[in-house]
Structure formats: C-alpha cells, structure tokens
Write a structure and sequence with these properties.
Layout: E1 8-12, H1 16-19, H2 29-42, E2 47-52, H3 64-71, H4 91-94, E3 99-103, H5 114-120, E4 125-131, H6 133-146, E5 150-159, H7 163-173, E6 181-184, H8 186-195
Helix pairs in contact: 2-8
Amino acid sequence: MLTDARAIHLCIDMQRIFAEETQWHTPTLFDIVPNIARIVAEKPGHTIFARFTVPHTPDLATGSWQTYYRRWSSLTGANLDPGMIELVEPLAALAEGEEIFDKPTYSLFGHSHLDQRLKARKADTLVITGVETDICVLATVFDAVDLGYRVILVRDAVTSSSLESHKATLELVLPRMPQQITIAGTADVIASWSCA
C-alpha cells in the first residue's frame, strides 16, 4: 500500500510570495493547487503546511543567510507586504484546522518541533507537495530521509520556477533512492489513502 492512516502530508511553501509577481515568482504554482487541495481534502487533519518566512532586514538573518537576503532585499520584511507570507487560496481556507509551521530555512525540518510533532502522531510516511521542487521541497525530502521517514513525493503536486531543474530532480536525483523515496501521482496517493 502506498500510504496508510499514519501518513502525514507536508505541503511546502504554497504562499503568495511565490505565486505573485515577486522576484521569487513561480509561474506554474497555481497549476498544482487543485491536486494539493484534493490531497488535503482526502484526509482532513493529516496536513502540515509550511510557510517560508523572511527576516525584517538582512542583518537579522543568520550567517550566510545575511548574504542571501542582501541579494533578495526586496523580499525582506522591511520591504514586503506581510500578507505575502500567507498561503494562497483555496489552500489558506483548507489550512484552517490544520497545522501551519513557519520556517526560516529551506527545509521544513528547520522548524525545531516538526520531528517531535511527527513522532507524537506516530507518522512513518510523509506525502510531500509544494514549491520549489529543487530547493525547499528537495531539502525537506532529504532531511525526512535522513531522519528515517519514508517519503512519497507527489509528482503532479510539486513545481519550480525552473522547470528544467524541477524535471531533473524528479527524473535524475530522486529516483536514485527508490528504497526511501516513492514518486507517485495525486490519483494514486488519494486512492491509497482512501483505502487506509
């Protein structure tokens, strides 16, 4: 079986800051929203939403993140509408009643309480969706694998601002770890979850 009742869906960074016309715009973000919404609706209470957060100024970031945010200073809190950190609709509405974890790093496991929360819920499998396939999604996948979770990456519910890199991640990188990472479609995940 692809998933079971203990599987948790991690939805990565489906936020206005990536959906709208910013320097981090991901043009295909809204293409994956319907599939993510279907997954969330299939198992209410089984999704954790991630939101990528930004410092108010580059100097408030840690280490090399200061250099990063000097490059992307237009997207720091001092220059950004705070609403841009919010989830896009209809996911924002679906997130009511679900958990939302803010993270200052690429990986959702940068949130110090995530692993503890997943263990409390007895999760052993993580269904992962969101943006960007080759950055925040990939970082979360690798951290999940390192912590011993089985990962199901939903191929038609992830995307990136670089479709070339997105494709390479799905076709070249992640297939190298078939014992730990399964790449599946939304329909297969939902069909499996509905039987769990």
